[in-house]
């Protein structure tokens, strides 16, 4: 069974790999044999994750990039190809959020969240997939969505809209890339202690979340590793594409 999840010889690019959730999934991919490129805007944090992976016997390298900039992503593609010769797994994990009420929302804030959460994912996938197709290299993309993508959450209007877009992009590209041997899936995390949701977690909101989460707790970032490794492995999920895999403590199963 261990062979199903063996990623030895694979290269994984983890965008947002310097964040809480992205770094956890990057470590999980590394522990199953993948060589990992840790990508983020904050190089100090990226280097910390890289050193942790190396200390655990893995192979990793830090890269700086802004996913909302096409020029930055194109340079990133060249740099990672120089480092590893190519890639097999691309995990899109950058994310930003805001609790600004809808009627007070300025377009600058809307654009910033959309640039990171949705446009950046499109830029990244476009650049990395194009090169994979040119090289005839098969592989897969794993996009990080959110429970707010299917049931919009109060106080996070723009975030919810951006993540709904991630689901649509995921399923569209699953069809688009299948003839090239490239799979595209998404993970829908529930509530995890990530940077972008801490700012809106008041006592009242936490109580509301727990009342809507059958497992009655937040997720641990390490609990996303299994989903990431499963989707990354062609042996385990080679016939899985266009899927939206929930890791949400039952949040999506609740009604009243």
TrEMBL record:
Keyword hit for Oxidoreductase: yes
UniProt KW Oxidoreductase keyword: yes
Top-rank taxon: Bacteria
Gene Ontology terms for molecular function: oxidoreductase activity, acting on the CH-OH group of donors, NAD or NADP as acceptor
Keywords, comma-separated and alphabetical: Oxidoreductase
GO biological process: carbohydrate metabolic process
UniProt-listed PANTHER family: 3-OXOACYL-[ACYL-CARRIER-PROTEIN] REDUCTASE FABG, SHORT-CHAIN DEHYDROGENASES/REDUCTASES FAMILY MEMBER
Family the entry assigns: Belongs to the short-chain dehydrogenases/reductases (SDR) family.
Protein name as catalogued: SDR family oxidoreductase
UniProt source species: Aquibacillus halophilus
Upper classification of the organism: Bacteria, Bacillati, Bacillota, Bacilli, Bacillales
């Amino acid at each position: 069974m261990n062979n199903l999840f063996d990623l030895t010889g694979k290269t994984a690019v983890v965008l947002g790999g310097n964040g809480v959730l992205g770094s956890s999934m990057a470590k999980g991919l590394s522990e199953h044999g993948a060589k990992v490129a840790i990508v983020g805007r904050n190089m100090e944090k990226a280097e910390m994750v890289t050193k942790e992976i190396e200390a655990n016997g893995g192979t990793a390298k830090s890269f700086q990039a802004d996913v909302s900039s096409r020029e930055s992503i194109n340079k990133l593609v060249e740099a990672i190809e120089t480092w590893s010769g190519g890639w097999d797994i691309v995990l899109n994990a950058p994310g930003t959020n805001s609790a600004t009420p809808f009627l007070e929302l300025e377009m600058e804030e809307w654009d910033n969240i959309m640039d990171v959460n949705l446009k950046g994912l499109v830029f990244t996938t476009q650049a990395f997939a194009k090169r994979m197709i040119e090289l005839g290299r098969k592989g897969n993309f794993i996009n990080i969505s959110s429970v707010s993508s299917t049931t919009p959450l109060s106080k996070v209007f723009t975030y919810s809209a951006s993540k709904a877009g991630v689901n649509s992009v995921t399923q569209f590209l699953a069809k688009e890339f299948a003839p090239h041997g490239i799979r595209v899936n998404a993970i829908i995390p529930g509530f995890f202690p990530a940077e972008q949701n801490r700012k809106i977690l008041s006592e009242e909101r936490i109580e509301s979340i727990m009342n809507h989460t059958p497992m009655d707790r937040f997720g641990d970032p390490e609990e996303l590793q299994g989903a990431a490794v499963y989707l990354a492995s062609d042996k385990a999920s080679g016939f899985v594409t266009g899927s939206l895999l929930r890791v949400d403590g039952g949040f999506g199963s609740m009604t009243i």
